[in-house]
Amino acid sequence: MATKTPVLTSKAPKPLPGIYSQAIIANGVVYCSGAVALDPETGKLIDGDVKAHTHQCIKNLTHVLEAAGTTIDKVVKVNVFLDNMDNFADMNEVYTQYWGDVKPCRTCVAVKTLPLNTDVEIECIAVL
Fold first, then answer.
1. Quick one: average pLDDT of 92-119?
2. What span, in angstroms and rounded, lies between the C-alpha atoms of 122 and 83?
3. Using only C-alpha atoms, what is the Rg of the chain?
4. Cα–Cα distance, 7 to 44 (Å, whole number)
5. pLDDT in tens, 73-90
6. Cα four-point dihedral sign 85, 31, 127, 14
7. Which backbone phi and psi does 37 adopt, to 5 degrees?
8. Can you give the CATH number for the domain in which 95 is found?
9. Each residue of 5-26: b (16+ CB within 10 Å) or e?
10. With 90 as the cut, is the pLDDT of residue 119 above it?
C-alpha cells in the first residue's frame, strides 16, 4: 500500500481534529480537502460575496499546496461546489484568474448546503 503523508499548515484553516487532513500526499499526488472561505487566523468565514469567497478558497488551497511542496500551477483537477448555480458566472470571473495558462479539469455542481452555509467550496488534486 502507498504511504499517505498528511499536510498541515497554519497558513490555511485548521482541519477538524480527527476528522480530516488539509491534504494527503500519496504516490506523487496531492489530494486537497475542500476549502471554504475561512480566515486561517480567526477560523471564521470572511465577509463578502461569492467572488471574495472564491478568492479566499483558492488562497487557502494555494497555501496547502505550497506546504505539500507543489504549486497551484500543478493542479490537474478541481471540484467546485456552489450553493446556487446563479453564482456560476461570478465564481468563474475569479476562478479564471488562477491555475496558470493550462486550466485543470473541473467539475462544478450546485449542492443543497455547504459548511457554515457558505456559497462556495473548492477542492483540488495536484502533482508534485
1. 96
2. 12
3. 14
4. 21
5. 999 999 999 999 999 999
6. positive
7. -85, 55
8. 3.30.1330.40
9. eebebeebbebeeeeebbbbbe
10. yes
Range of the domain at 119: 5-12+21-127
Domains: count for the chain: 1
Residue 64, pLDDT above cutoff 90: yes
Q: What does DSSP say about strands 105-110 and 75-82: parallel, antiparallel, or unpaired?
A: parallel
Grid coordinates belonging to 80: 467546485
The residue ranges of DSSP E strands in the chain, in sequence order, are 5-7, 23-26, 29-32, 75-82, 105-110, 120-127
Cell numbers placing 6: 498528511
pTM of the complete model: 0.95
Q: 112 forms bridges with which residues in the sheet?
A: none
Nearest to 111, CA basis, from 78, 80, 81, 86: 81
Is residue 12 within 8 A of residue 22, CB to CB? The reply is: yes
Indicate left, alpha or beta for 82 from its phi (over 0: left) and psi (-120 to 50: alpha).
beta
Helices 50-68 and 88-95 cross at an angle (nearest 10°) of 40
The one-letter amino acid at 115: P
Residues, the chain, total? 128
